[in-house]
């Protein structure tokens, strides 16, 4: 089972990261030994499960042109998840612009890795990875949240991306041209039938 090996490797990486994180003051930069959480690899592993199991995928979409619900092919599901994988914060050229902070919340319980940048040239501004710590098993990703801001021609685009482990992903996109009112579109791609 290739996927279970991937989960074990990811779990091992998370354990090492958490142990190293406990020794830190909570902030690191890309020049230090710690590596950032592999968000793109994690998303690819989730998409691999959807593709391998051929899970039914539903798209919920709303925006200025109305709302609709439709079934997606696996290929469409994989293509629509591209914003979660680009840019990859583990790429040294991208990681150099980010700072990592981590903190644990024992009331939930959870561990959060937060990556932020002040570099205005980078479209990716923030990434939050929330893990469920488990001393007996590998830590499990609960959610991933990302914020992006970039221009496409004369349009300023802001995106808020949310990944709920094993359930769905969601993208809120606001587009603004000059001083015109912003246009909001929302997509939610669900592969868990209980959602």
Structural class: alpha+beta
Helix content estimate: 10-25%
Poorly predicted spans: 1-10, 12-34
Shape verdict:
globular
Q: Please, how many domains?
A: 1
Strand content: 35-45%
The rounded Rg comes to: 18 Å
Number of strands: 10
Give the end-to-end Cα distance, rounded to a whole number of Å: 27 Å
Q: What is the H/E order? A: HEHEEHHEEEEEEE
Task: Note the total helix count.
Answer: 4
In short:
It contains four helices and ten strands, in the order αβαββααβββββββ. It is of the alpha+beta class.
Structure explained in plain terms:
With 195 residues, the protein is an alpha+beta fold. It has one domain (2-190). Helices cover 25% and strands 42% of the residues. It contains four helices and ten strands, in the order αβαββααβββββββ. It has helices spanning 2-23, 39-53, 74-80, 92-95, and strands spanning 27-29, 57-63, 66-72, 99-105, 110-116, 124-132, 140-152, 155-164, 168-177, 183-190. A ten-stranded antiparallel sheet has the order 1-4-5-6-7-8-9-10-2-3. Helix 1 (2-23) packs antiparallel against helix 2. The longest helix is centred in the first third of the chain and has 22 residues, at 2-23. The radius of gyration is 18 Å and the shape is globular. It starts with a helix and ends in a 5-residue tail after the last strand. Mean pLDDT is 84; it is low at 1-10 and 12-34.
Strand and helix map with partners:
Blueprint: H1 2-23, E1 27-29, H2 39-53, E2 57-63, E3 66-72, H3 74-80, H4 92-95, E4 99-105, E5 110-116, E6 124-132, E7 140-152, E8 155-164, E9 168-177, E10 183-190
Antiparallel strand pairs: 1-4, 2-3, 2-10, 4-5, 5-6, 6-7, 7-8, 8-9, 9-10
Helix pairs in contact: 1-2
